[in-house]
Amino acid sequence: MSGAFPSPYGGPSPYATPVPVLRLGDVLLVTLPGDLHDGTAEQLQQDISDTVARSGATGVVIDLSGVEIVDSFLGRVLGDIAAQTSLLAARTVVAGMRPAVAITLVELGLTLPGLRTALTTEDAMRLLGDQGPTLPRPGDSRQERV
Amino acid sequence: MPEQDTAAHRRTPAQEVADFLRGRQEQIAQRWADAALFRTVFTHSRDEAVEAGRAVVDALAAVAGADTVEDAESGGFHIVRDQLARTAAARARAGASITDISREVDALRPPVTELLLAEFPDAPAEHVRECATTLTVLMGTLRLVVLETALSEGEDVIHRQRLQLLEVATPVIKLWEGIVAVPLIGTLDSARSQVVMETLLDSIVEQHARFAILDITGVPTVDSLVAQHLMKTVAAARLMGAECIVSGIRPAIAQTIVHLGIDLSSVLTRASLADALAYALGQQGADIVAREGAGSEHR
Asked: Hey, what's the signal peptide range on this chain (chain A) (predicted)?
């Protein structure tokens, strides 16, 4: 990602437009673009926590279906967003991650254990709408394992 | 060829041999057609065998003419490489070992040597010996080329079969709406588990599966590497929003895993594929119950 190198203009890249954070009721929806610059990602991290704090949203859905390339930085940002929002009493769900992206993250050793995931944004909304106890994730039924 | 005889002493033995091969091409090809290598491959017609023999003699003459009798990479061999590969492959299919093929190629030498000796009845003994040595070296190089092609043919077969094995060995089965399973059979190495991971993740997207079951009943041994591959697959599936269940861990394997100190606590496990399916169905709110009067409930 180009943001990893100092920009010749000394500031954030002039091409980096901020990622919009959409509000749908109690849930914030963020669709990541395919070419996310590191600077934009950091900006997004701030925007999300600001918006959650201001609006009192209870859930954040990050749609990754358009992202084809991921690096360790973006992986860390995702983990950080989840940690921040959970401090603000909102749950983060990452939706629509592509197989290649999932494999890359695993190979990088970023299994993002605290992060909730869903196949599509629709599933993610359903997951967040389910206000009861969180769905059992791997690890909840450990007593029965071999 | 009296003119050639007089000119002979100013030429290298290799060029001499090249001239001899060109001159006697037909005779050599005829004799080779009766040799085991050509006879067993070209069973349909003798003419074909003679034709193949002529091509090989031509190639040998080209190699000798270029003075590169010891070079198996020599340009002259390129023309016949395909044909030699086919010949060697045909012999290999017929059950001949590399040693057999080598012996058969070697058997092509005596008839040519005979003809060569007959070619120079009254040349000086030293000159004849030089030509014979050159011819022997040339035939040795031919043998090398044949064996090389035969071996590379074998490698191609192995490579093709390995690819086929990769395709065949990783079917992803849709068990239920939103539930897919991969029955793993045989030893898992890095290449295979990579394919398993990719096909499983692709099918999760395709089938919109919330649950993926990895059944390792058919995996004979699990070492730390295999366990690591399993955990990677499970983690990747989770990142995509699907839950991965590992089923079919046999008692011996469970013991091995514990002995090796591998921590599979992040992986959801079930004893059998049926249990895993029942769990996945239960999570989706579905249940399997027996109809009235039918067999016992299976959960």
From this structure: none
